[in-house]
Amino acid sequence: CVCVCVVRLWAVLTLQPDWTSVFTGETVTLRCQVQGAGDTDWRYRWYRGETQVHQTDSSTRDEGRYTISSVSYYHSGDYTCEGVRSGNPSHSDRSSPVTLTVSGVRPRPVLTVSPLGQIFEGDSVTLHCEVTGASTGWRYYWYRTGQSWAGLDNVRYNDRRVYLQPLSDSSSGAGGNFTISAVTGTHRGLYWCRAERGDAPYYTQYSGAVTLTVSELFSRPTLTVSPAGSVWEGETVTLQCDTEAHRADTQLSYTFTRDTETLRAAAAQSQHIVPAVTRGDSGLYQCEAQAEGTSVKRWSDAVWVTVSEGRPAATLTVEPPWRQLYALEPVSLRCGLSGAPTGWTYRWYRDGSPTAVSQTDGHTMTGDRLSITAVSVSDGGQYQCEGMRGSKSFVSQRSDGLNLSISELLPRVSLTVDPPRVQHFTGSVVTLKCGGPGGSAGWTVKRYTKGQVEPGCSSHREETTADGCVIRYTSESDSGVYWCQSGAERSSAVTLRVTGGTERQGVATQPAGGAPHHPWRVSVCVKA
């Protein structure tokens, strides 16, 4: 009895790389191996469907490998292989089929940005690039708008050519991610991605552009120093760092520096107080705001603070510049401080009294002025003033004394105003007249306004008369204190206040000046 043993050998076909879905122009290698028989003396036949394929200009066969260097639609199909040789057995079984699908369009990856919605400074942002479909094995690259440098790729975007600057990261897999752990304003711009695979390699098209918009987490801080301007030894200085958060959950901390040295380390309070400053506290101050849990920080502009020695000296002046007044004249006492400082309030004293002059109906205090609408003999005396500021009332030096003398005697000449009132309205006619027992010869009308004495009848709207002038069409610039003057002698002064509005006859208003016994015309001033 003779036993005949039949050995069956079979071929195994694999793709290298193992991509069953490829694109025109890629390189694909089919590898055939006969299992269990070694590789000795085997030659291979390749089939697409039932048709044997042969070497062409775009393909090569070498030791069990069939390489297609640039696939096309024609190469799509089910591939098999078998081994043949001169020995026994002389051939293998044919392999199971491997399907090769060739797509004709070079793929364009899809680029997306996450998270969706508004992105703020300090957020983590991921650019995700993926070639859709069943293809695998891709390596991904990211780009952003670059300069017009030689060697950079370029694409058309919105009818213009832009150059693409490659970013320094790549990753592999079915999809790639480029992560910016904490975005800043410098990351704003247009982004693209592209994929490649294979040893050749084979590149996809560039993706469409994606715009990365990074919103400011908070505005640049502003440092406010109070008091502003000049500061004197012993004052308390407050530093206020203000900024506006653009996202509701933003928590900010603030750092304060002087000449780049830290005054106060980061803390939640946006204010820092420097009590009782000295000359050594002079310097350049800044504040920094930082969003907690992020690296987002911003500096304010620098503010120079100069601390002066001692206390500022107040200066008291009188407006109009007369120290001898007639009863019922208006006068203002103005308190000033050197260096045009801000944030001061003022007090006035008379005849060395420790108690400040109080505000009454006829004595009003506005800013740096004490105004007396109609002086009386009791208003005479020596006046001083001082300034105060800060929560602890830092007080300046008192001014030198200024003496006011009030006369009850009437001057030889008086200035009368028609209509006889203080308040006038634009567009009206006002007559100013100098007169007295000795006549008006040699007397002219003067005016005090905006800190200066000037002719009272010099406007093109004014008509000069023998004893004064007529203002034909009043304007707000006609407001001021008026009087008649001849050499060193003058009349009592009267106040004219011109504002916009209209008037109608009806109720008497306060007289503008002149002798007390004059009859007054009755009128009512009504604001328009």
Mean pLDDT: 87
Helix coverage percent of residues?
A: under 10%
Alpha carbon gyration radius: 48 Å
Helix-and-strand structural type: mainly beta
Number of strands: 51
Unreliable segments (pLDDT under 50, ≥5 consecutive)?
505-511, 513-528
The total of helices stands at 0
Beta-strand residue fraction? over 45%
Global shape: rod-shaped
Distance between the termini: 138 Å
Largest sheet: 6 strands, antiparallel
Please explain how this structure is put together.
- With 528 residues, this protein is an all-beta fold.
- 0% of the residues lie in helices and 48% in strands.
- The protein is built from no helices and 51 strands.
- Strands 13, 14, 15, 17, 18 and 19 form a six-stranded antiparallel β-sheet that branches. Strands 41, 43, 44, 47, 48 and 49 form a six-stranded mixed β-sheet that branches.
- The C terminus is likely disordered.
Topology, please?
Elements lengths: L9 E7 L4 E3 L4 E8 L7 E6 L2 E3 L5 E4 L2 E4 L8 E8 L13 E6 L6 E5 L4 E2 L4 E6 L8 E8 L7 E4 L2 E13 L3 E5 L8 E9 L4 E2 L6 E3 L1 E2 L6 E5 L4 E2 L4 E6 L9 E7 L2 E7 L3 E4 L8 E9 L5 E3 L3 E3 L1 E2 L5 E6 L4 E3 L4 E7 L7 E6 L12 E4 L2 E4 L8 E9 L4 E2 L6 E6 L6 E5 L4 E3 L4 E6 L8 E6 L2 E4 L6 E4 L2 E4 L8 E7 L2 E2 L3 E6 L2 E3 L19 E3 L2
